[in-house]
UniProtKB/TrEMBL annotation:
It comes from Marinobacter salexigens. The keyword Zinc-finger does not apply. The modification 4-aspartylphosphate is found at residue 516. This is histidine kinase. PANTHER family: SENSOR HISTIDINE KINASE RCSC, TWO-COMPONENT HISTIDINE KINASE. The keyword Transit peptide does not apply.
Length: 585
């Protein structure tokens, strides 16, 4: 058997031991086991790299830029659409023309690689076996020791990333398109909105013009109504006073009957005119309440005195029950409500009795009007508050009105923010109740002198000197005639100057003054009263008679402590007012 040293000598070569500087004997004895171990380690390392090369997820290849593949792994073959690496190496022999989709892009990469020695994760497209492109990210390293243009490459398939990026680009494009469309729509809507705003502004300007025109028309209407009511009430007032004076006279039966008919006709005209004016103001919300603390007991007593004569003429029993009570309300409107309820009760009570009562419940005050009249069917209780609704059909008794009294009551109750309820039994009578919040009980005051209205009607005013100021001569004549029938001594004057001139020539002062509010030449009856008081040096009891129903006038006269009697003047109200003035004097 030949020795290794002999074989080496014969072959004329060198052994591993000689290369490492050992003699052949030493190698055999000392180095062989260590070398064997090293060879085994290198083999294991080689096998590990080979496994990594063959099982890598990314493509790995070694190639010549001027030729084809020198080596490649299965992942590279899969990326390029080939069955195995051998098939890829055999079929792709020119990287420039067969692997890269763009020769110019290959040239750009090659030049950059030659200049810098490497390039990292550069995106490009490779040609698959079916001639379709595949998007990859390629990293190239030059290996000049293996050849001038030998490179090692790592290839990652980024098709999904490119597709996602393309989808994202498409989504962005769609979003931008939708934004543009939405912007265009918003711009169109904005243009439409601007147009609508312009149209609305035009409409608002037109509405302002229309409102101003309506307000001007309303003011003109109010002025017309005020002027018409004043012009209508003046002759009605004169006629009413004249008829009242005739009623106080001794006339033959036929003339008395005719006077009564004229009296009823005038009374109906007056009531209708007053109701129409009030209902018009209430519907236009032009009647504003004048909230003041009101002594309801005193108010009710005054109404009682007013209706005592009516009760006496109708042969009805009329009673009043009061309690001390103060409420914050509009005194004129509350008076109108109670007066309308009482008028309704007297109108539809042919016989029996009527009761006006004040009752307190908790912190509220109830004003109740009871009657034993014809009553109302329960099914018609809601209808009685509608305009022009007759409570009873013609021929059932009672003076027929225009059907506005309870309609006015219903509206005024709402304006006064109080409550009203009604109960009634057909043929037995009715009860109307008004509920108001009560501010507190009025402490008993020093009793005022009471006036027996029945005695006043019988005896008159015993020569009391009354000064009447009115610019309408027919009213002056009628007022003088009526007051003289009541045994008054009457002084008449058309204005303040005439009254002052007369009083300057006599030493006998009037005990009361009745003055029209609107005199000629824009003079006011209140100014005439103050001038007379100043000249005489005493506060003579006085009142104003006017067709002006405004809140402002009432507030102004209340500050001046001047009572108001509205036209047309009814004799019973005038008598009650005059009695009150004489009692205060």
């Amino acid at each position: 058997m030949k020795k290794p040293s002999d074989e080496h000598s014969q072959a004329g070569g060198y052994g591993i031991g000689e290369l490492l500087g050992f003699g052949s004997q030493s190698v055999r004895k000392n180095y062989y086991p260590a070398l064997q171990d090293r060879i085994e380690e290198l083999e294991q390392e080689r096998n590990r790299y080979k496994w990594l090369f063959e099982n890598a997820l990314h493509g790995v290849f070694q190639g010549n830029l001027r030729a084809g593949f020198l080596a490649c792994n299965p992942a590279m073959a899969k990326i390029c659409g080939y069955d195995n690496p051998e098939d890829l190496q055999q079929r792709v022999i020119r990287l420039r023309e067969q692997l890269f989709c763009s020769a110019s892009e290959f040239d750009t990469l090659r030049q950059e690689l030659l200049d810098h020695g490497s390039l990292s994760a550069r995106e490009t497209r490779l040609m698959r076996a079916d001639s379709t492109p595949v998007h990859v990210a390629i990293t190239l390293l030059r290996q000049p020791d293996l050849g001038p243009e030998v490179v090692e490459a790592f290839v990652a398939d980024i098709s999904e990333r490119v597709q996602s990026r393309a989808k994202l680009v498409q989504l962005n494009a769609d979003l931008e398109r939708r934004v543009d469309e939405r912007t265009a729509a918003l711009q169109q809507a904005n243009d439409g909105l601007h147009y609508q705003i312009e149209e609305r502004e035009k409409a608002e300007r037109g509405l302002v013009v229309a409102v101003k025109a309506a307000q001007d028309a309303n003011r003109s209407k109010d002025k017309y109504l005020a002027a018409a009511s004043h012009d209508l009430l003046q002759p009605l007032n004169a006629a009413r006073l004249m008829i009242s004076a005739l009623q106080e006279s001794q006339l033959p039966s036929e003339e008395t009957r005719m006077v009564q008919q004229v009296h009823r006709a005038l009374e109906g005209a007056e009531d209708l005119l007053a109701d129409l004016l009030d209902i018009s103001k209430l519907d236009q919300q032009a009647m504003v309440p004048d909230w003041v603390m009101t002594d309801v007991a005193a108010l009710v007593e005054g109404l009682g005195e007013e209706f005592e004569a009516i009760a006496a003429n109708a042969g009805l029993k009329f009673r009043i029950r009061t309690i001390p009570a103060m409420v914050k309300t509009d005194q004129r409107m509350l008076t109108r409500v109670i007066r309308n309820l009482l008028s309704n009760a007297f109108r539809y009570t042919p016989r029996g009795r009527i009761l006006l009562a004040l009752r307190s419940r908790s912190n509220t005050l109830r004003i109740e009007v009871w009657d034993t009249g014809v009553g109302i069917e329960e099914s018609k209780l809601e209808e009685i508050f509608t305009e022009f609704h007759q409570l009873l059909p013609q021929g059932t008794g009672g003076r027929q009105g225009a059907g506005l009294g309870l309609a006015i009551v219903d509206r005024m109750v709402r304006v006064l923010e109080c409550e009203m309820d009604v109960v009634s039994r057909l043929g037995r009578g009715s009860r109307f109740a008004l509920t108001l919040p009560m501010e507190g009980n009025r402490e008993p005051q020093e009793s005022k002198p009471t006036i027996n209205t029945a005695q006043i009607f019988a005896k008159g005013f015993s020569g009391a000197k009354i000064l009447v100021i009115d610019n309408d001569l027919s009213v002056l004549e009628s007022m003088k005639l009526l007051l003289e029938r009541w045994s008054c001594s009457v002084i008449t004057a058309p204005n303040s100057d005439a009254a002052l001139a007369y009083l300057d020539t006599t030493n006998e002062n009037p005990v009361a003054i009745l003055a029209d509010y609107h005199l000629d030449h824009e003079q006011l009856g209140s100014d005439a009263i103050h001038a007379i008081r100043n000249m005489l040096g005493q506060k003579i009891p006085a009142a104003l008679i006017t067709a002006d129903h405004s809140v402002e006038t009432r507030q102004m006269m209340r500050l001046q402590e001047l009572p108001i009697l509205n036209k047309p003047v009814k004799p019973n109200r005038l008598r009650a007012l005059l009695s009150s003035l004489l009692a205060s004097g």
